[in-house]
């Protein structure tokens, strides 16, 4: 038997394997940007992002309909506010996904710490 094949050395080999796996997991997490992977997490994120978008469009359409009813400007209020709701929905999705910072926030970019260092 070789030196590393002894039965007593199994604990050492297991620790080595765990260290290699931990390093690979960390490297994979850094490469994917810390995004969740998995069935339930990604499905939940998809539902959350789609509901953010739909809410923006519905609120815009409702406000446009209300403006049209009050001002008698049918269909222009609905058209304008529907487009504004569409834009707001996209902005909400981008903010929720972390691709756009909140207005006025000094949030660090991905991969940076609080002092702006990588």
UniProtKB/TrEMBL annotation:
The chain crosses the membrane at residues 73-94. Pfam families: ATPase_gene1. One of its GO terms (cellular component) is proton-transporting ATP synthase complex. It comes from Chelativorans petroleitrophicus. A possible function for this protein is to guide the assembly of the membrane sector of the ATPase enzyme complex. This is ATP synthase protein I. The keyword Membrane applies. Belongs to the bacterial AtpI family. GO terms for biological process: proton transmembrane transport. Coiled coil: none annotated. InterPro entries: Atp1_alphaprobac, ATPase_put. Keywords: Hydrogen ion transport, Ion transport, Membrane, Transmembrane, Transmembrane helix, Transport.
